[in-house]
Write a structure and sequence with these properties.
It is a single chain. This protein is an alpha+beta fold. The protein folds into 2 domains: about 170 residues, no CATH class; about 160 residues, no CATH class. It is built from 12 helices and 10 strands. Strands 2-3-8-5-7-6 form a 6-stranded mixed β-barrel. Strand 6 and strand 7 form a beta hairpin. Helix 2 packs across helix 10, helix 2 runs antiparallel to helix 11 and helix 10 packs antiparallel against helix 11.
């Protein structure tokens, strides 16, 4: 390793690795610090993503292209009833293939054992049943039968006594019969079972305000017609949102207008600071204890940038191990929690993994910078003189 050469000796990476793993206590301390930080970051953000996904579950389950609503609506469950003329006006707009009403409300279900359970009642357009769920048992046509209801088989299914086809109960003193059991793409957030029936039956079973339509569901003729429809609805004084726009509106509400987003962000920042503090301090201590070895390498010709590469390699190596362990531990915890409690809301996305990876790189980079400054200031003669 002559001072004048410009190439890099790959053998220095081997030396760096041996220096790192030989001190197992320091090595595992750095890995544990990064693992802990990655675990908490992924865990917190996964919980937040799961909450956001479930908060807009009804939007995904109904699957309408455009939702027409009162401008004051922030979440799919906080409905503000629309006057009947809104649906008629939307139906007559250019570019609208069809527009149907959707009713959404809450009712008290009296079970066979005499107990009561709150439930979300969805009333589908009587003619088209637009927004109906896929059935795993029963026939959707039976919903037109006397007092017919479809129950969703999700995490809240057992709260209704795990009903079967033909099961009977009461809703606000009205007799109801289960004619279908459905599966939906996403579970709800608030722990309430969901029942589907026809629009007019929902109005008969539940107490009503002056206006009864929760949303008007619109299917455009083409995607190019969506901006025209949105503008026309806005002239009426109401709001038309696509599925993605409605999801985004709900996400912004829970992120910025509730304590959920702030708390998750605070926990993620704390996790990052803890991981950075533990790994940075431990890595710096590791370098101090091996300062004589770095000084010897510098004395026999290793350049400063080569020593920096060694430290970066050590930090990245421990960071990747900590990242893998942190993600794996979080995935295991989510898997176990979901099997123990179906209501557990957490989902790990590629965006979350990318965020955790960037955080890991920042932690590893900051740790290596702190250590590299000490190594670059070494005077080899002081090492041998000591």
């Amino acid at each position: 390793m002559s001072p004048g050469r410009t190439g890099f000796n790959p053998g220095l990476f081997i030396i760096a690795l041996k220096l790192l793993v030989n001190d197992r206590t320091k090595f595992f301390s750095v890995v544990i610090g990064i693992t802990f930080a990655v675990f908490l970051i992924v865990q917190m953000t996964s919980m937040f993503a799961g909450i956001l996904q479930r908060s807009s579950a009804m939007v995904a389950n109904v699957g309408a292209s455009i939702w027409v609503m009162d401008p004051g609506v922030q979440t799919v469950s906080s409905t503000i009833p629309l006057p009947g003329y809104v649906q008629d006006a939307v139906r007559s707009m250019d570019g609208v293939r069809y527009a149907v009403p959707l009713y959404m409300g809450g009712g008290q279900v009296k079970l066979a054992n005499g107990t009561y359970q709150s439930a979300t009642i969805i009333g589908l357009d009587d003619t088209s049943l637009y927004g109906r769920p896929a059935l795993e048992q029963g026939k959707i046509e039976d919903i037109y039968g006397e007092n017919g209801f479809v129950v969703v088989d999700d995490a809240e299914f057992a709260k209704l006594g795990s009903p079967r086809l033909g099961s009977k109960f009461e809703i606000n003193d009205h007799r109801a019969v289960i004619v279908g059991i459905a599966k939906v793409t996403s579970n709800g957030l608030f722990g309430v079972p969901t029942l589907y029936t026809t629009y007019n039956r929902a109005l008969q079973f539940l107490p009503q305000t002056r206006f009864t339509t929760s949303y008007v569901l619109v299917e455009p003729k083409t995607r190019a017609d969506i901006p025209r429809i949105e503008a026309a609805v806005a002239k009426l004084g109401y709001l038309a949102l696509t599925k993605d726009q409605f999801d985004d509106r709900i996400s912004k509400f829970y992120t910025f207008q509730t304590g959920i987003g702030v708390n998750i962000m605070l926990m993620s920042v704390i996790s990052f600071i803890v991981g950075l503090s533990i790994s940075g301090q431990t890595f710096y201590t590791f370098v101090l204890e091996n300062i004589d070895k770095f000084g010897a390498l510098k004395a026999i010709g290793a350049q400063g940038r080569e020593l920096v590469y060694m430290i970066l390699f050590q930090a990245l190596f421990t960071g990747l191990i900590g990242y893998g362990l942190g993600v794996g531990l979080c995935s295991l915890m989510i898997f176990v929690a979901r099997h123990a409690n179906a209501n557990y809301a957490a989902v790990t996305t590629f965006g979350i993994l990318a965020l955790a990876f960037v955080m890991m790189l920042v932690i590893a980079g900051a740790s290596s910078v702190i250590a590299a400054r000490k190594v670059l200031s070494i005077d080899p003669f002081d090492i041998f003189r000591g």
